[in-house]
Every structure is written in C-alpha cells, then in structure tokens.
Amino acid sequence: MRTSPVAEFDPSFVRMDLPDLRINYDPVDPDQFDRPIVSFYLETNKDNDELPLHSHKKGQLVVASHGSVMCRAPGGLWIVPPQGAVWIPAGVPHSNCVSDYGKVYVVFIDPKASTLPSMCCTFTITSLVRELIHRLAVFPPLYPVDGPTSRLGRVLLDELVQMSTEEMYLPISADSRLQHLATSLLDDPGDRSTVEELAARYAMSERTFARLVAKETGMTFGRWRQRLHILVALKRLSSGSSVQAVSLDLGYETPSAFITMFKKTMGKSPRRFLADRSSFVNHEPPP
C-alpha cells in the first residue's frame, strides 16, 4: 500500500499559522475506551476555535460524510472530500479541520489491532466500509468484547487494510521559507506570482528556489501549487461554493480554465468528482 511520507515531528510546525484550520466539534478522548475499534458520528457548527496539535495512543480515521476535512500533521496537509477518509497513525501530532456544518465519522483504532500504515494518508471509502463505520457508531463505545458488535469491528478492521490510497496530500517541509510560502498561498491561493518573483521574495535565485522546492516536496513548484489549488478547491466546493467562485478565488481567468486543470489532474470535472462521491452525504446518522 503506497502512502504519503510524514516528516519527523518538528516543533516549528506547531507555530505554522495555517488559515481556516479549526476544529468545530467537541473533541473525543479515544484512549478512555478499552476496545480495539470505536466509531463516533459528529456534526460541526460554525466558526469555532482550533484545538492545538495533539496526538492519541490510538490511530484515527476521519471519514467525511458531508463537507470536507483538512488534517495538518508534520510533513503536510491532507484533505478529505465526501466519501473519503484521512488516516492518522497513533502518536502523530495532528489537528483536524471540519468544514462548517460538516458531518463526519471518527474511528479510533488500537495500533495492536490493525496493520494500517504507519504514515498519514487518505483513502477512498468503499460502500461496505462506510456501512460498517455507520453501524458501529450506532452502538456504545464500550460494547461487549465477545458480542456481535465486537465481531462487526473485526470485519471493519479486515476491510480497512484493503482500502486504496489517494493523492489528497500537500507536502510542506520544515524549511521556514517553504512554510511561509505555504501559509501565504493558502491565505491567498489566487496569488499568481512567478517562480522568479517568489525566488526574489525569499532572496534566492530562480534556480535555487526551484531546487529547494523540488528537494523538500518532491515536486516542481508548478505541480506543488497545482496540488494546493486542488486541495483548496475541494475544501471550498465541498462546503457549497460554486465552481465559478472557486475558479476566481484561485486566480483562473475563466471557470473553464479551472475545470480543465481539475479534470486533467483528477480525471473528472469538479461537479462530477463530487457527485460521484455524494452517496455518503445522504446517509442517515446514528440515532
């Protein structure tokens, strides 16, 4: 299973001021539940504060039912559109931002109970997996260890290790200049400064800047900025923004130019991409 790399935890990452990242729901302490896997259904409000970066003894799978989830952890940002999930291994410092009025399932997994990746990554959720997650969330987290709920959890664990990963990841290194650049472009994704202009901004030659980005992210700057645009677009489109509004915010001259970029990168138009993933949106929440 191919996953995105996560850098060793760098305390400087905690100080990175990434815009529009906040946790909109009351946090759940999974370590108080002595079960291999537990599932919770959560709905978000609007404009709440973000919790500091934190970690759990258990791994965390955040599944987007309605809206989107953006996770930050050492090494980068991960975004989850509807019918997707972000996996955060046990012990990894992280903070999750759920879009306003979002609906998510949060699944906590004991690292001893599963062979899920040891690095953050995003998944495509199958119909069976989302039904199992939904069903498990109906039951109390302290279910009988030998009962039917426990067997349901074991089936879910077996299915989770077979999920395929997605490229919903923006690498952000510990280099202070690239952290500043990421913050700047997330705050103003429509900034169309050239490589030459950005290099001058950070007192580097164009060649040195290009080499730094490639070394620290594994991408050319053009591809890295395009990935950032895809993540920002998915977050805003999942929250209800129109294609036209998003394309203008990202600095595209016309919506068709944005749609062409999106389709070339994701294989589908923005509307088709989200429509194909919308079956989880109308899923009834646990009573």
- Helix segment count? 10
Contiguous uncertain segments of 5+ residues: 1-25
Largest beta sheet, briefly? 6 strands, antiparallel
Percentage of β-strand residues:
15-25%
Measured as a percent range, the helix fraction is 25-40%
H/E order of the elements?
HEEEEEEEEHHEEHHHHHHH
- Average pLDDT for all residues: 83
Question: Count the strands?
Answer: 10
Widest β-sheet, arrangement of strands: 1-7-2-5-8-9
The end-to-end distance, rounded to whole angstroms, is 35 Å
Radius of gyration: 19 Å
Q: What is the 3D shape?
A: globular
SS class: alpha+beta
Explain what this protein looks like in three dimensions:
The protein is an alpha+beta fold. The chain has helices spanning 11-14, 127-138, 148-160, 176-187, 195-201, 206-217, 221-238, 243-249, 255-266, 270-275, and strands at 37-43, 59-66, 69-73, 76-80, 84-88, 95-98, 103-109, 121-124, 165-166, 169-171. A six-stranded antiparallel β-sheet has the order 1-7-2-5-8-9, with helices on one face. It has a four-stranded antiparallel β-sheet with strand order 6-3-4-10, covered by helices on one side. It starts with 10 loop residues before the first helix and ends in a 12-residue tail after the last helix.
